Automatic annotation (TrEMBL):
Needed cofactors: Mg(2+)
GO biological process, one term: thiamine biosynthetic process
Organism, as annotated: Brassica carinata
Described purpose of this protein according to its UniProt entry: Essential for thiamine biosynthesis. Bifunctional enzyme that catalyzes the phosphorylation of hydroxymethylpyrimidine phosphate (HMP-P) to HMP-PP and condenses 4-methyl-5-(beta-hydroxyethyl)thiazole monophosphate (THZ-P) and 2-methyl-4-amino-5-hydroxymethyl pyrimidine pyrophosphate (HMP-PP) to form thiamine monophosphate (TMP).
Keyword Membrane among record annotations: no
Pathway: Cofactor biosynthesis; thiamine diphosphate biosynthesis; thiamine phosphate from 4-amino-2-methyl-5-diphosphomethylpyrimidine and 4-methyl-5-(2-phosphoethyl)-thiazole: step 1/1; Cofactor biosynthesis; thiamine diphosphate biosynthesis; 4-amino-2-methyl-5-diphosphomethylpyrimidine from 5-amino-1-(5-phospho-D-ribosyl)imidazole: step 2/3
Subcellular location: Plastid, Chloroplast
Designated name of the protein: Thiamine-phosphate pyrophosphorylase
Record-linked InterPro entries: Aldolase_TIM, HMP/HMP-P_kinase_dom, PM/HMP-P_kinase-1, Ribokinase-like, ThiamineP_synth_sf, ThiamineP_synth_TenI, TMP_synthase
Keywords of the record: ATP-binding, Chloroplast, Kinase, Magnesium, Metal-binding, Multifunctional enzyme, Nucleotide-binding, Plastid, Thiamine biosynthesis, Transferase, Transit peptide
Family named by the database record: Belongs to the thiamine-phosphate synthase family.
Domain Pyridoxamine kinase/Phosphomethylpyrimidine kinase, first and last residues per copy: 43-286
Pfam families: Phos_pyr_kin, TMP-TENI
Amino acid sequence: MQSLGGIRSWPATWRTTTASMMTTTTTESVRKVAQVLTVAGSDSGAGAGIQADIKVCAARGVYCASVITAVTAQNSRGVQSVHLLPPDFVSEQLKSVLSDFEVDVVKTGMLPSPEIVEVLLQNLSEYPVRALVVDPVMVSTSGHVLAGSSILSIFRYRLLPVADIITPNVKEASALLGGVRIQTVAEMRSAAKSLHQMGPRFVLVKGGDLPDSSDSVDVYFDGNEFHELHSPRIATRNTHGTGCTLASCIAAELAKGSPMLSAVKVAKRFVDTALNYSKDIVIGSGMQGPFDHFLSLKDPQSYRQSTFKPDDLFLYAVTDSRMNRKWNRSIVDAVKAAIEGGATIIQLREKEAETREFLEEAKSCVDICRSNGVFLLINDRIDIALACDADGVHVGQSDMPVDLVRSLLGPDKIIGVSCKTQEQAHQAWKDGADYIGSGGVFPTNTKANNRTIGLDGLREVCKASKLPVVAIGGIGISNAESVMRIGEPNLKGVAVVSALFDQECVLSEAKKLHKSLTESKREH
Ligand SMILES: Cc1ncc(COP(=O)(O)OP(=O)(O)O)c(N)n1
Ligand SMILES: Cc1ncsc1CCOP(=O)(O)O
Ligand SMILES: [Mg+2]
């Protein structure tokens, strides 16, 4: 099996396509379409399985072909009956699609027998694709066994080693690991590590079923680093098909060209938004209803504008035009590298840029950030933020007042404000800011004439406000841990300029800083 970046190379015309576009036009006016093939079971209730997969891909702008492995009779009450398709017929479907279409990514769901996995593997070796996403479906949300223990051996020794990513929930992860206990995030991490040793390039262990947790935590492991992806638990009965939706959304984003972590983050946000949007709908009379994958058609705003979470401040990358010029980088390249290295939010702070040029670059950065599921804010320039439809702005005490910014940008945009004192922190809350940037914590050459407040000043600001706080000023790999160690619960991360952008390789510096922040978070 070839994997992402593997044997089949991208057509030259496609390589230049931005990740947010599904198609592009070649010189011969042929439109290339990002394509997923789902190999899964049919759900007559259409909340999960093949039907969910097709809907997600359509909602994400990707074509989805389907090979059906089994037909289930099911609804919101559960699975009433399952009919397996003969392996030869599954193979015929696979050949039909793979020999004809240029499938980018194959996503698997219900693979109910070892023979069916065998024909899948055969076809994939004959018709290689760019990536394989394996959702090791074993039990339906209602508790019906969809693939029994006979499947475990071929999953472990044949399928997992050729997968690019696997997305088990805790029960599936436990089954794949011979029944180990997985009841805490620490046990999820250890399970992700053990599963990675079975061969997949990336592992995402989904913690939605974890007992006693107020938010839903998924653990992502790339063989080197862990990422914990948090989202608030959404109170709804309409959770049928969330696993299929997440895996298909990952496949769709990969097919459009996203790196793996970005694809996973976008998919998680898509599922959260869909669940939230559909929390009150009633389809069926049972315990687990389907949700609406097409929310974007009904209410684009609710889909586009996902909610800002304090943890988004974890690794906050702030650009600088002088540094970009010094290192001969465009803003766009700087932003791409920071995101790839793990930046969780971006601010464009381009003090010397010409308005017209800044606007064009800001628009490109909005596209990149949106397709990676990372928010983009603009420093100082409310006009640019409005014109490029950024996710928000960051303003200081001598910029436009926060209450006025709020009235110009509306309730959905993110507003951050710089605070050095307790009074400023109180005011930030009253004025409707979403977060506080506090510093300079340490001396810095990036901002002239800036008073340093030290760790004590940072602590005071944190204590004075309910808002999440990000520390800024002179922070880098050598001292990020000492900042986070002040242990204030609303201190959510560090914002850095020179530690990322006044460096030869933004990507590796971002990775190192992300790793050090993750370690300090785990320790405290
Ligand atoms: C996250 C974050 N915190 C603080 C600042 C500083 O903003 P400001 O005080 O407006 O100073 P300038 O950046 O405009 O020089 C920031 N940009 N980001
Ligand atoms: C914009 C800003 N606001 C307070 S300190 C600072 C500069 C931070 O830059 P660096 O991370 O290079 O010290
Ligand atoms: Mg400012």
